[in-house]
Amino acid sequence: QLVESGGGLVQSGGSLRLSCVASGLPFNTYAAMWYRQAPGKERELVAAIDSVGFRTNYADFVKGRFTISRDNVKKTVSLQMNSLKPEDTAVYYCHSKRGPAEYWGQGTQVTVSS
Prior knowledge:
This protein is mainly beta.
């Protein structure tokens, strides 16, 4: 399973760091991603990192502001979010995938006030 933490309320321009800890899976063989879903909108990919942490990808709307990283010893994946904007307000979900096997976290709320 995946368990997220680190969400909360922050002012525009502020920072938050989300963390996701994995258990019950060989995490170092799974790619990891962060998705988000705002009210009334579809879930969208925010950032992705491969199983060993060599390659990362970001959605255009977070490039230069968010950084994804992982620690396979601690079985965690993190999302450092800087220069937050009100439009970043959403529930953020941790996702891990290897072939047809995939896991989702329960989500953590991020609210950015203007």
